[in-house]
Amino acid sequence: MNFDEIIALDKADPLAQKRLEFDLPVNTIYLDGNSLGALPKSVKSKVAEVVSQQWGNDLIKSWNSHNWIDLPIRVGEKIAPIIGAAKGQVICCDSISVNLFKLLCSALTLNSERTVVLSTKDNFPTDLYMVQGLSDLLGPDLCQLQMVEEQDIEQSLNESVAVLLLTQVNFRTGNLLDMAKLTKLAHEKGILVIWDLAHSAGALSVELDKCEADFAVGCGYKYLNGGPGSPAFVYVAKRHQYAIKQPLSGWMGHSKPFAFNPEYQAASNINQFQCGTPSVISMSVLDAALDVWQDVDMLQIRTKSVELAEVFLQLIQGNECLHDLLLCSPKLAEQRGSQLAFSHHDAFAICQALIEKGVVADFRAPNIIRFGFTPLYTSFEDVWRAVTTLTNIVESGFYKEQRFNITLKVT
Amino acid sequence: MNFDEIIALDKADPLAQKRLEFDLPVNTIYLDGNSLGALPKSVKSKVAEVVSQQWGNDLIKSWNSHNWIDLPIRVGEKIAPIIGAAKGQVICCDSISVNLFKLLCSALTLNSERTVVLSTKDNFPTDLYMVQGLSDLLGPDLCQLQMVEEQDIEQSLNESVAVLLLTQVNFRTGNLLDMAKLTKLAHEKGILVIWDLAHSAGALSVELDKCEADFAVGCGYKYLNGGPGSPAFVYVAKRHQYAIKQPLSGWMGHSKPFAFNPEYQAASNINQFQCGTPSVISMSVLDAALDVWQDVDMLQIRTKSVELAEVFLQLIQGNECLHDLLLCSPKLAEQRGSQLAFSHHDAFAICQALIEKGVVADFRAPNIIRFGFTPLYTSFEDVWRAVTTLTNIVESGFYKEQRFNITLKVT
Fold it and tell me: What residues does pyridoxal 5'-phosphate bind to (chains A, B) (predicted)?
């Protein structure tokens, strides 16, 4: 594959114009949108307006006049089509971790005859930690975490399992779990499923409703480009909303928050999953960032994501000097999310050298480099230039010279 | 009291210059900083820098280069002197509601022989709701809420009470509880105390350490001027930090979050009270807003707060036509926070009419108007003009004409 073919791919890309809606840093190839999404241009004026006009000038009146009070629902409804959810099932609030706690309690209550929360050993740690925290609180008679390898999920589904907690796309390897199949198998055993969409919302075509998913969480700061620490979201299938009660029963989840009644009465819809006062500034940023998605077809996102990764892989594998980079992601594109992970004994040094040369990838302990592909703003030319830079770094041994200067401070 | 005397008070006010650090709306007298604080001028450039430079340009590298990772601690340490806390005890994270859940669980675990959480009937509802949610989750054998009137707190302290949950300043009446006395009385009965500082942090001289407080929460968006839905904070006395474990055990509370270990190991310090990824944009706004406090003496804040309220009260009470406004706040200044509440059978209409005439106060169901005094930016002239406007509205009956046009949508 040569540079002309790469340019032809960019020319044929139906999403190519989307890149213009982002403020990308100069002289940088950003392949880390799976950790923190890039800045949509519309955000800058929006945040200035929210701060100066809505907060500074209109002050408390903005709860009504700028409808701050409905922000969590409004933002949730913008996320819904991106994850295949019909209306009334998604709300924006808190963090993934806090939202997982709400859903774990809800699901365990629905399945109160059972105690096991089944998850995978290499799930993103916070998912496992939240189960451990709940298990310590309730005791093992009510909640216990069982961790298995990803390939052992299916055979571990049995009638002792109350909740299956899975991240659709593995944060290290990018391995993509089959949501439709696993949800169906779990339901056959009476198991409720919580899907963590951190690495899939905005990265591929998620179909929560079609898969008859029960619950999901996801974050705003990766592929949804909502900014660092952007609020997260919760999905609760309509059929479960009347039956459950989540324990983080803050005033915003009350059926009538402004009645200031001392008795909690949960809202009977998705509003119940709110807890405290919404984070208006951060949520408004996400709100603006989500406008980029209005005319986007998620199948186009997936198609381009696969192409970007396939081209990257082809360029890497066609280059002898990069053979020490061992693919940790699945070989088949349909089994991957929107990233490629490689192990290398000098992964950390290579990653730092790449960043120094303007190619931003990221490192995950102990020895993995991740390259994320964000179809909205990653071009095929980016992929070409990233591999060229990587080749230069490895061929020249530049990364070895650098390694002694590096402070190990990784996020 | 005449207008010249009012102007003299402003001239003698050592905090008068602080008002210049805020962007206050024109033609508005803002007496609702107890609900949403005004915009500090420094915030506008800060948020633009965080969005454009830190996020937009530096992207993922900012976790290190702009030290996002330490924001919760950095902001916590800026709040600490405002609430009388020595270092290492305050962290910024989540909302008051979520933080109350962490503290309630922590306190109940420390006092595991007991089950009662004692609070007041007219505590801010979310505080009560969070106890109710926890009680539903754990069952009444482990947690039960007992609500009493404020005046009955002392006589309700007994050996069955595990946790005393109090808001220092009542959100409706502004009644100020005696933190030193109540904490001491509670400790004598083996009760742990959680103080909600929503209406006191930044409004008066809070002395958590001196009172030997156990735990506290507070919000960033009232007197701390951190913007709508600004993140909250948690205080945990040093002596309790080693003994407790809070159940919302997200990855940011782990002793080594970036080791990505599947087993949760709580940080042994205040960091444990973090849960998910911090809300960088909102927290940076609060960070900038807190710089206003650097050279502020909290005793000066309290002195001015009392004076503002006393002048307001004197002007109201000296005006015959305002005699239908009945003071719901304590008569004695030392028993009040930084607000005055009045009941009136037409409270809602009067409040709306005031807002229409540029005086922003707020309404609390069923019949209360609250006027908040924020010593950093409320002037004595504001107080004078507010009472003049109120007098005109009541004398003219203007508020009665308005009442039929008002949509009941209050926050």
Answer: 96-97, 124-127, 167, 196, 199, 221, 251, 277
Check: CB of residue B322 under 8 Å from CB of residue B388. Answer: no
Give CA–CA dist A308/A174, Å, rounded: 14
Task: For this complex, say whether ipTM is above 0.85.
Answer: yes
CA distance B208 to B220: 17
Coil vs helix vs strand at A375: coil
Note the pLDDT of residue A365.
83
3-class DSSP state for residue A353? helix
Q: Which residue has the tokens 């310590």?
A: A136
Residues A158-173 have a mean pLDDT of: 97
Neighbours of A281 (CB within 10 A): 28
Q: Average pLDDT of chain A?
A: 95
Residue B97 marked as a ligand binder = yes
Nearest CA in chain B to A246: B133
Identify the pLDDT of residue B404: 41
Catalytic residue ranges of A:
124, 196, 221-222, 370
Cβ of A136 within 8 Å of Cβ of B32? The answer is no
pLDDT band for position B402 (cuts 50, 70, 90): low
Cβ contact B409:B352 at 8 Å: no
pLDDT band at A398 (very low <50, low <70, confident <90, very high): confident
| Chains A, B: CB pairs < 8 Å | 286
Q: Give residue A28's pLDDT.
A: 97
* Strand positions, DSSP E, A42-135: 90-92, 116-120
pLDDT tens digits for A109-128? 999 999 999 999 999 999 99
What does the pLDDT read at residue A400? 83
Distance, first Cα to last Cα, chain B: 34
Q: Is the pLDDT of residue A402 over 60?
A: no
Within 8 A of A45 by CB-CB distance, chain B residues are none
Contact A375, A301 (CB under 8 A): yes
- A238-256 burial: b if 16+ Cβ within 10 Å, else e: eebbeebbbbbbbbbbbee
Q: In chain B, what are the domains?
A: 3-30+297-405 (3.90.1150.10), 47-293 (3.40.640.10)
Return the pLDDT at A411. 35
